[in-house]
Design brief:
- The chain has about 450 residues and is α/β, with parallel strands linked by helices.
- The strands form 3 sheets. Strands 7, 10, 11, 12, 13, 14, 15, 16, 17 and 18 form a 10-stranded mixed beta sheet that branches. A 6-stranded parallel beta sheet has the order 3-2-1-4-5-6, with helices on one face.
- The longest helix has 21 residues.
- The two termini are about 45 Å apart.
- The relative contact order is 0.15.
Length: about 450
């Protein structure tokens, strides 16, 4: 798969124009070490050429990625990806020199992700990156400069915000704009935020029907990132996206009020089960205490957006109880109603949205709000619940987490064809990473 290292690549400021034509997008997958890289290719896209060029160091990460794509090719809804693979220690230089595509997909070890994005932009390549784009506050300014350079060169840098496509989150956002029902978003406080989101994840899980084997480096916060700068990215993004829809939020309009972090402890046996490694590698020894690996995967951030209080929490457990799964909790507090997403045993671990009126319930107002959303969300309805109403969602509107990667990719392809990101997308990419990196510093 490998060959001799090429000469150092030259700078290229040109960027291809996209018209939405068949096969005009040519993907490059760079150093895939996370299963999210594969999920981008769980389906085919008319605008994307079926040949994908993969550049990576030799090792188990790239082998698992390639095997995952082959499973999609042979699956019940088979894809038809063809993979051209280069592996070698000079994979980054080789990718830049070959220029085999015009969009790179970056999802893997986060230790070099900001560097990868910068290199791609300098060579006129568009970037679709898994979160997080930056895990170290020292690299935040590099990301900011890179986004400025991308705009100047006419290339699009976008991160994969899958949670915007979860149906109850979409409905929570939409119903919060129905002022007769929701009223106005309250200002809130640290003790009772106007909007809060909690996400619970598990190290041991299945993906695409197979047990997920995580690379050992996933548990190194210097390579994966702490929870407060990793999964928290999704939650901060949703706070911005829901509180001030389609509005550009400047970094000067947010303030981190409080942040904390804590560790999940894994035994050697648990670590071995999810990685296949018999022992903790040398680079993790500094995180081993009393025979257990301490992974600072958990974090909490209290912050304000234009004076509105928000809170996000990320929790990682080893594995879910029998029958359970990853869960999400969210509340938006309005002057007339609260919009709450629950995903516990009572909901069958399916995200479920509730409308809980503040004061006397007015069912006709809810009925009018639901009717107003039928064109965007056909088939949604409601029924009475203990503390208000449950929003019912037809199966046709529910898509799983894995399918959201295709939806994000389709959104990115539309932006490529448009030739630019909306101003609010561009601004809020930078702002959410400002929040997470400031929280990282404060938590210490």
């Amino acid at each position: 798969m490998g060959c001799a290292s090429p000469n150092p690549p030259s700078d290229d400021s040109s960027a291809a124009a996209f018209r939405g034509s068949s096969g005009e997008v040519r993907l490059i997958t760079l150093d895939p070490g996370h299963f999210h890289a594969g999920l981008v290719q769980k389906k085919m896209y008319e605008q994307v050429d079926p040949t994908v060029h993969v550049y990576a160091p030799e090792g188990e990460d790239v082998r698992q990625h390639l095997a995952r794509i082959e499973r999609y090719n042979a699956g019940t809804s088979p894809t038809s990806w063809q993979q051209e693979v280069y592996t070698g220690p000079d994979y980054l230089d080789r990718m830049l020199a070959d220029r085999a595509g015009n969009v790179i997909v970056v999802s893997g070890n986060n230790g070099r992700k900001t560097e990868y994005i910068e290199a791609a932009v300098k060579h006129g390549l568009n970037v679709l990156a898994d979160k997080p784009m930056v895990i170290d506050p020292a690299e935040y300014e590099l990301l900011a400069r890179t986004l400025d350079e991308a705009e100047a060169r006419g290339v699009l840098v976008y991160d994969i915000m899958t949670e915007r496509f979860e149906i109850t989150t979409m409905l929570q956002r939409a119903l919060s704009r129905q002022t007769a029902l929701f009223g106005e978003l309250v200002t809130g406080s640290v003790e009772e935020p106007a909007i809060s989101k909690e996400s619970v994840h598990h190290f041991s899980k299945e993906v695409s029907g197979a047990p997920l084997i995580r690379p050992a480096w996933f548990f190194d916060v210097k390579q994966q990132g702490e929870g407060i700068v990793d999964v928290a990215t999704h939650l901060v993004d949703l706070v911005l996206w829901e509180t001030f829809p389609d509005q550009a939020i400047a970094t000067s309009e947010v303030e981190v009020v409080r942040a904390r972090r804590w560790a999940t402890r894994l035994s050697r046996e648990q670590f071995s089960h999810v990685t296949g490694e018999e022992t903790f590698p040398d680079y993790l020894q500094s995180q081993v205490k009393d025979g257990h690996l301490e992974v600072f995967a958990n974090g909490e951030i209290d912050f304000t957006v234009r004076g509105v209080h928000g809170k996000v929490s990320v929790i990682w457990n080893y594995e879910a109880p029998p029958g359970a799964a990853d869960t999400h909790y969210s509340v938006m507090r309005g002057t007339r109603a609260n919009l709450i997403i629950r995903q516990d045993a009572e909901q069958g671990y399916t995200p479920t949205l509730y409308v809980e009126p503040v004061g006397t319930p007015d069912e006709s107002t809810l009925r009018n709000a639901i009717d107003a959303l039928q064109s965007s969300f056909p088939g949604i309805a409601y029924r009475r619940a203990d503390t208000g109403y449950e929003i019912t969602v037809p199966p046709t509107l529910r898509t799983g987490h894995e399918d959201h990667f295709g939806q994000v990719t389709e959104q990115y392809l539309r932006y490529l064809t448009d030739g630019n990101l909306p101003a609010w997308e561009r601004a809020n990419i930078l702002t959410k990473y400002f929040v997470t990196t400031e929280a990282y510093k404060m938590s210490r």
